[in-house]
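User: Can you write out an input/output pair for a complex, sequences first and structure second?

Assistant: Here is one pair. Inputs:
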Amino acid sequence: MKTFFDCIPCFVRQSLDAIRMITPDEAVHEQVLREVLRVLAEMDLCQSPPVIAQRIHRLIGVLTGERDPYRQVKDRFNRLALKMYPRLRAGIDESPAPLETAVRLAIAGNVIDMGVNNDLTDAEVHNSVEGALTKALNGQLAVFDRAISSARDILYLTDNAGEIVFDRLLIEQMSPERVTVAVKGAPIINDATMADATAAGLDDLVNVIDNGSDAPGTILEDCSATFREYFDKADMIIAKGQGNYETLSEVDKNIFFVLKAKCPVIARDLGCEVGDFVLRRSNRGRAA
Amino acid sequence: MKTFFDCIPCFVRQSLDAIRMITPDEAVHEQVLREVLRVLAEMDLCQSPPVIAQRIHRLIGVLTGERDPYRQVKDRFNRLALKMYPRLRAGIDESPAPLETAVRLAIAGNVIDMGVNNDLTDAEVHNSVEGALTKALNGQLAVFDRAISSARDILYLTDNAGEIVFDRLLIEQMSPERVTVAVKGAPIINDATMADATAAGLDDLVNVIDNGSDAPGTILEDCSATFREYFDKADMIIAKGQGNYETLSEVDKNIFFVLKAKCPVIARDLGCEVGDFVLRRSNRGRAA
């Protein structure tokens, strides 16, 4: 997905959020803000939003020396999600439709996205989970279910820390021996890295790899050769969150996008409403 | 009030709103957006937001040749407000506290602000009016009432088209022969100009002047000498809307700010909540 003009105000806001987490020094805020505006003025809009976000957050890292401003926030939401985990797992075990319940919870966890909402409260995460079981699911669960049943090699692309615990609930429903989980290769916003996969207990359950990239999505040409091998040989890809949709929506693979549509640009591109719980097979996957 | 970092994403969004009203040509949208980002990257943040907005909207005018993109929107909201006027006027006439009712309605009309919400619907204006009579008023009505009673020369600074009909309801409650109404000297967003004062019937009721400026607020050094004479000799100023607050909050005059707080930056500066109906005497006015 290309970058839309409406993404630009959001990049500016996201930069402000990040820099405020690094320092209270307003002179630094101003310096970063002006540099970000200069970058945005010259950017190539044919690129997807995560390409531009990667460039901006790298710039913030260079200007401030801080490469992981969201580390504390990531820890906080990992802890919150792990605290919720036993009750959620019990809910799935007792559910008449465990896969559907697990999909709903995995999407509920996608609310933990600091790129969209930097002020997320614990209560909002709880509310997202409470609402998840009754909310209409925009997508074809039966197609997803059949695809999982017939897949030999599933690559699961995670999105954010905290959310990755909700992903674990879904992965537990799909014969984990076939599943490889990928996290980001280096910190970017609150996206999950290897430390978060470990915190979520995923490394005891499945093979976990990192993608070698610090983009908030999956820009294949920016990923490591090892990751690309896994990507190429997988016969089913599960891609969590907006960033993975933005970077993979036009890639020729059997991809299922699993996300909450949190912004009007994504919602328009998906043909859904903001707030929708989306489970969508890629057009390329459908044609295959 | 200076410009806060949080105003920057809003300027970008406002520019997009304006340029989309002028042309559907995305190449022009992109050209304007890049120019606006360059201007924002270099701007002086000690200036108030209307100084920067004036510069951006002038730039849009130069780049597109369109100096009044909101003319149709202004006409639309003038018509809507004039249609509502007889019922609202009857409500004030029947009210046990006509001045208070008129203040509330004048603030309700401040929702017609395309700088904040470009997609405003007629229903939202009706809802604003419905809610206005029961909403808590953040301010001292008694002080305002006494100030009006004792004022010899009132200058009423309007904000937006459509809203100006709601201002008429308030002006009708205050012996109009003492009142001069000021509109903007040239189009800027959907701010009221002389055409809107005429459409609202204000020129039959009071002396109407323009301020000689195309800023979305009252930047005194940018206003005409005639306007400044009126401003200097008035012993009470009623300043409608956020833009007038942003530009006059530190001016040494007896000013009453009458507005709906529509953004977090303004709300923080005023020490109120977003959505509050505010009637606030300037600190300078209070000390005098």
